[in-house]
Amino acid sequence: MVTFVLTYIAIKKIIMVQKRKRIISTILIAIPALVLLTGGIMKLTHTEPETVVQFLTEAGFGSYMQVLGLGSILIGALLLYPETHKIGFLLASCYFAAALSLEISGAQPPVSALFITILWLGMFLKNKGMFFGV
């Protein structure tokens, strides 16, 4: 009977840890996804802050705002949808890395580094196999 109770307690703790891990990873992945979705909608509706529009125009991407907006929305949606979260993760990593390179080259604060870090932490908690091939 004692063995059964100890086994039950151990299993319950494992389930609680897995549940917490799933919740935390979902929140960590949702933050960059929401940033992508919001930024994409703002680019499509021309409500992006003037400083962002000016920076992208100076970098040579001013005429591609609509394409960037559509791509951002697509990547955010892929990241949130469970069956496509892996490809969404890879595309979001590329998107934020490109944004980071623009920020660094334009002497802007590297905000994208924060979002790519949050994204990678969330995906690591959700699916370690993407990093270690397990």
From TrEMBL:
- Key words, A-Z: Membrane, Transmembrane, Transmembrane helix
Segments passing through the bilayer: 23-41, 61-80, 110-125
Q: What is this protein called?
A: Uncharacterized protein
Species of provenance: Cytophaga hutchinsonii (strain ATCC 33406 / DSM 1761 / CIP 103989 / NBRC 15051 / NCIMB 9469 / D465)
